[in-house]
């Protein structure tokens, strides 16, 4: 039986990104051995989209109130890298990780599966 999912973010500054995810995003973690921090995610869902492009994977964080979340991030000095855009499926933006990578964030306007 499948008991969970494990997401991997590749980073040019993994330690700084781990600390950011733990301390700024507030995701608790465990030491998987040798100081290797593995962080707990909030409830998740997976969608499979059709594409004519080569296969790829994306990782987005979801929130219930994007404006409130962005205010909190700004108060913590987190860089918002994209203006909020209105999509048919939700309100989309992104934040900057310490490594320089972008992490997309959206407020869904569609039914969600993560609470099932």
From TrEMBL:
Q: What is this protein called?
A: Extradiol dioxygenase
Specify one Pfam family: Glyoxalase
Q: Which UniProt keywords apply?
A: Dioxygenase, Oxidoreductase
Q: Which Gene3D superfamilies match?
A: 2,3-Dihydroxybiphenyl 1,2-Dioxygenase, domain 1
Q: Does the keyword Oxidoreductase apply?
A: yes
Task: Name all VOC domain ranges.
Answer: 3-108
- Specify whether Oxidoreductase is a keyword of the entry: yes
Native organism is Streptomyces pseudovenezuelae
The molecular function GO annotations come to:
dioxygenase activity
